[in-house]
Amino acid sequence: MDLIADILLVAGALGAGFYCFVLARRLTRFTDLENGVGGAVAVLSAQVDDLSKTLNTAQKTAGDSSESLQELTERAEDVARRLELLVASMHDLPQGGAAPQQPNADTVFMRRPRSGAV
Fold first, then answer.
1. Which residues, 6 or more positions from 38, have their beta carbon under 8 angstroms from its beta carbon?
2. How far apart are CA 35 and CA 22, in angstroms?
3. What is the per-residue DSSP string for 52-106?
4. Which residues are CB-contacts of 32 (< 8 A; sequence separation ≥ 6)?
5. Is a pLDDT exceeding 80 seen at residue 36?
6. Residue 115 to residues 111, 112, 118: CA-CA distances in angstroms?
7. Contact 30/36 with Cβ under 8 angstroms?
8. Which pLDDT value is given to residue 109?
9. Is 97 left (phi over 0), alpha (psi -120 to 50) or beta?
10. Residues 18, 21, 26, CA angle at the centre, nearest 5°?
């Protein structure tokens, strides 16, 4: 009986040793920098760096666009004010599109002689 127990104990130890060997190989492949999780972490780190650079560029562009839009809005508000004044001044014009006034008979037109003319 002791012989069978010893054989089973040795077989279990060999099985456990083989299992540890397989796990060690899988772990080294898992943490390999080129193919495993280490590689995936390295790739993700590079992508995060690229993404942060892109985000900074996008923020700068958005800031510039915001400033440009603010300037255009201010210009549009100025033009709108001027248009409101022009429309308000249109109320002073006579209704019906009256013709311009003709000079009366008392108006005298004089021409100046051109300088150097003979």
1. 31, 32
2. 18
3. HHHHHHHHHHHHHHHHHHHHHHHHHHHHHHHHHHHHHHHTTSPTT-PPPPPP-TT
4. 38, 39
5. no
6. 12, 9, 9
7. yes
8. 63
9. left
10. 130
